[in-house]
Amino acid sequence: MGAGVAEGKARACELTHSGPRGRIRRVWWRWDVYAVIDSGGKQVTVREGDLVRVERIAGSPGDQVTLDRVLLIGGGETRVGTPTVEGASVHARVVRQARARKIIVMKYKAKAHYRRKTGHRQDYTELRIERIAAPAG
After folding, report:
1. Using an 8 Å Cβ cutoff, are 67 and 59 in contact?
2. Which one of 22, 38, 79, 96 has the fewest CB atoms closer than 10 angstroms to its CB?
3. Around Cβ 31, how many Cβ atoms within 10 Å?
4. For the chain, which residues make up each domain, given as ranges?
5. SS3 for 40?
6. What phi and psi, each to the nearest 5 degrees, are found at residue 8?
7. Is the pLDDT assigned to residue 17 strictly greater than 70?
8. For residues 82, 83, 85 and 88, what is the CA-based torsion angle, rounded to 10 degrees?
9. How far is residue 62's CA from residue 84's CA, in Å, rounded to a whole number?
10. Residue 121, helix vs strand vs coil
11. Greatest CA separation found in the chain?
12. What CA–CA distances, in Å, run from 10 to 33, 35, 71, 130?
């Protein structure tokens, strides 16, 4: 193991060139600590330093939020919750509040002259994961 990997620190990525056109691709090294959280009815895998989108959470940009519904913590020793890991939490900072791209919902029934077209934009919160706190023991 290289330096800087201990205590949940992630290794940096390495840029390599591949292919005839010289495309740059990222080769990610192994991450030590990760967690699976439940936010807005969806399960999201997060690592320290990640930028993730979750269903809207109250808070303005720059606020710190704590996500307590941690379903799994992986890395050196994997802990699976029943349903959550007791004492575990993920600390994140709100980067922005925004709305996703519009999706078009088209309802159509053949031979009945029934057509409805509506749109929907989902609110989301973009979070920067700062720290994954695992319980001792």
Report:
1. no
2. 22
3. 17
4. 1-31, 33-133
5. coil
6. 80, 10
7. no
8. -170
9. 27
10. coil
11. 68
12. 8, 13, 21, 12
**What is the C-alpha to C-alpha distance for residues 10 and 120, in angstroms, rounded to an integer?**
37
Predicted pLDDT of residue 7 = 44
d(CA 77, CA 79): 6
Alpha carbon distance 43, 101 (integer Å)? 21
Could you tell me the pTM of the whole model? 0.69
Q: Give the Cα-Cα-Cα angle 81, 87, 92 (nearest 5 degrees).
A: 95
Task: Report residue 135 as tokens.
Answer: 């319980």
Per-residue pLDDT of 44-75, as tens digits, reads 999 988 899 999 999 999 999 999 999 999 88
* Three-class SS state of 8: helix
